[in-house]
Amino acid sequence: MELAASTAGTVSTGKGRAVGALGGTFDPPHFGHLVGAQEVQTILGLERVLFVPSGVPPHKQGEPVTDVAHRVRMVELAIAGNPGFELCLADVERPGPSYTVDLVPILQATCGEDAELYFLVGGDSVGDLPLWREPAELLRRCRVVTFTRPGYPEPDLDQLERKVPGARGRISILRTPGVAVSSSELRSRVSQGLPIRYLVPQAVEDYIHEHGLYRGPS
Questions:
Q1: Spatial separation of the C-alpha atoms in residues 21 and 19, rounded to whole Å
Q2: Which end of the chain lies in a sparser environment, N or C, as judged by fewer CB atoms within 10 Å?
Q3: pLDDT score of 13 more than 50
Q4: Are 168 and 161 within 8 A, CB to CB?
Q5: 208: how many CB neighbours lie within 10 A of its CB?
Q6: Burial class of residue 96 (count of CB atoms within 10 Å of its CB; 0-12, 13-18, 19+)
């Protein structure tokens, strides 16, 4: 299902409320995350968007990941002042790898059984959905909304449907005025002494420099 950026309004969920959850490593959080979340919230009429930092990202095992306390604090700084955004520590407070299919029931309990949960995923990540843990069960437990990112092709729903039957009816593509930036690019820029101003909120930039994050190879 494709949703144009101009179709604002409240989603009919059958449950009365709609809540979004944007999970990620947030290493660091940037304007791409914020713009995508804001656009999805506005167009789908979400009550709020939960920002859910990953505790132990399974797809980054063996790779350096910034300490979770720093990542949580950067998310706090990034979303400060937006009453529609909320930090959620459900993933960092549970043990083990951060499998989304296991996280969703916890988020559902947090939101309440009367809420329809939408899991927000960047367009460059949803293509890997067939490789996620129990993707069919994940789609049964929640709807997935993916927002586009400049420089990346839109997800191929036909291909996803072939690999995960039922995916087409549970995944929506939302075109947003995204920002062509990634966390890995930002880490690289900091390590090279290049500016990241206007790519992340000022408070996040200040925190990165204050704590000496990303100064080594990334």
A1: 7
A2: N
A3: no
A4: yes
A5: 21
A6: exposed
